[in-house]
Amino acid sequence: MIASPPPPVPYPATALVVAGRRVDLTVRVLVAGVVPPPRFGREGEVLATAKAVRDAGADLVDVSLPARLLGPVARAGAMAVCARVATAAAAAEARRAGAALVLVPAGEAAGASEPAGAAGAVAVVVDDLGALPAARAVADRLGLALAVDAARWHGPEAVGREAAAIAGGCRLVRTADVRRSRRVAETMAAVLGARRP
User: What span, in angstroms and rounded, lies between the C-alpha atoms of 18 and 26?
Assistant: First the structure.
């Protein structure tokens, strides 16, 4: 019996420009470390956590918090800031506060009246693997990057899900465990690079 060839791997035909830096998503997977809401609601807590996320190896600091907390991290200039948003209005507010990249749900991106990337860097984000094919279709149609939100995933199952999402076309992983996701991203980038035609 002759084994059938493996299915083709989706390679995004897009580059992402974040904070003036062009990232070729055909050969790179980015990790966005999540900054959780501060316990006491202070800017200093957010800044300290953002520094810890950066030091853990994140490419981006995800500050999906109110603009008054996102802004100071963006103004610190230590690294690019992204934010997960639910609406176009929230995306505009995050950009005004200094977010270099916004992560929007596929439905919001699909309903945009102008190309979502026109006002800044945008990625389509999914929460689960079941939504990946539809989100990938939206991202491909609009020429946007595809991201997976793995912030709620834990343990060995998270590793498998992140790897499957990357193999399915996601090139940005939003995570609460930067070290784990960095290892998965680097391993999968090497595997995908070896499979490139």
Answer: 16
pTM of structure: 0.86
- Number of folded domains in the chain? 1
How far is residue 121's CA from residue 113's CA, in Å, rounded to a whole number?
A: 16
- Per residue in 111-138, pLDDT (tens digit) is 654 444 444 688 999 999 999 999 999 9
Q: Check if the beta carbon of residue 115 is closer than 8 Å to that of residue 88.
A: no
Answer whether residue 86 is part of any domain: yes
What is d(CA 22, CA 24) in angstroms, rounded to the nearest whole number?
A: 7
Q: Say what the pLDDT of residue 195 is.
A: 65
CA distances from 32 to 2, 112, 129, 135, 148 (A): 41, 24, 18, 19, 10
Please name which of 74, 85, 81, 87 lies closest in space to residue 32, comparing C-alpha atoms.
81
For every residue of 133-159, DSSP letters joined together read HHHHHHHHHHT-EEEEE-TT--HHHHH
Joined together, the tokens standing for residue 162 give: 């992140």
How much is the pLDDT for 187? 93
Q: CA angle 59-63-65, nearest 5°?
A: 170
Whichever domain contains 148, its CATH number is 3.20.20.20
Length in residues, the chain: 197
d(CA 45, CA 43) in angstroms, rounded, equals 5
